[in-house]
Design a protein that fits this description.
mainly alpha, Helix Hairpins, elongated
Length: about 130
């Protein structure tokens, strides 16, 4: 099994490789968001009777917690929108955490290396 992140005793990743890691995580997050919005657009299109553009806008708005732009009048559509709002909000927060993970890991790694250098006097990570 390969590691996604380097061990705490390993040196910091060079800036170019760190930027590539950030891009990879951003692409995964964008893919998950895109898939979730596509599912929501299909729901709003079929159960809400909206055009594809309006369904996509509503899916994105509901997923980010802003609420739909177009009212849904059917009971099935309202139930689907409620379920999508819960799932979409959760997915939105999970993707935000996923995208922030490399930066937070790097911050913790830098802090750990500073503490290790201070305690041992070593030049770990330089």
């Amino acid at each position: 099994m390969t590691r996604v992140f380097e061990h705490h005793s390993a040196p910091l990743l060079p800036p170019r490789l760190f930027a590539l890691r950030l891009v990879r995580f951003l692409l995964v997050g964008a893919g998950v968001d895109g898939l979730a919005i596509a599912v929501g657009a299909v729901l709003f299109r079929t159960l809400g009777g909206l055009s594809w553009l309006d369904a996509t806008v509503d899916a994105a708005m509901v997923m980010t917690g802003n609420g739909p732009q177009h009212p849904i009048v059917e009971s099935a559509g309202k139930l689907a929108m409620a379920a999508y709002a819960v799932a979409g909000g959760t997915i939105y927060l999970m993707v935000a955490a996923l995208v922030l993970t490399p930066a937070l890991h790097r911050l913790l790694h830098v802090l750990h290396l500073r503490v290790a250098r201070r305690e041992t006097g070593d030049e770990i990570g330089r």
